[in-house]
């Protein structure tokens, strides 16, 4: 991510982060549901296996989402104008760092406690992956 002199970054507000995460979850749920309907159309069965097979899709998207774009954004973060960057040099988050960052997402409340109570608004996943979520401020 370019960091020209006329740009400044600030920690993203929690509300924007939650909105972006909600958008990501709606997106992947819609994709998984559409794929499920397609599979059921061509391979109808009374077996519940078709339903279970899409859980990995949701998990994989959740883990890699912040590294999907070269700017360190998931689809929801892109819509909300948020970026996941390294804490030390503000380079964009890649796929591997995204996996480390988002593996704690499944801890739920524990991860949320870090986000809410830390002054720098970094959740446990951010600490593990050495990342932070920012928004660009034009100056």
Structure notes:
The longest helix has 29 residues. Helix content is 52%, strand content 13%. It is elongated. The protein is an alpha+beta fold and 139 residues long. The chain has seven helices and three strands; from the N terminus they run βααααβαααβ. A three-stranded antiparallel sheet has the order 1-3-2. The N terminus is likely disordered. Helix 1 packs antiparallel against helix 3. It has one domain. The two termini are 17 Å apart. 24% of the residues are buried.
Number of helices: 7
Structural class: alpha+beta
Computed over alpha carbons, the radius of gyration is 17 Å
Percent helix among the residues? 40-55%
Strand order of the largest sheet: 1-3-2
Q: Please trace the helix and strand order, writing H or E for each element.
A: EHHHHEHHHE
Q: What are the segments in which pLDDT stays under 50 over at least 5 consecutive residues?
A: 1-6
Q: State the assembly state of the protein chains.
A: single chain
How far apart the termini lie comes to 17 Å
Mean pLDDT: 88
**Main pleated-sheet profile:** 3 strands, antiparallel
Shape: elongated
**Proportion of strand residues:** 5-15%
Tally the beta strands: 3
Brief overview:
This protein is of the alpha+beta class and about 140 residues long. It contains seven helices and three strands; from the N terminus they run βααααβαααβ.
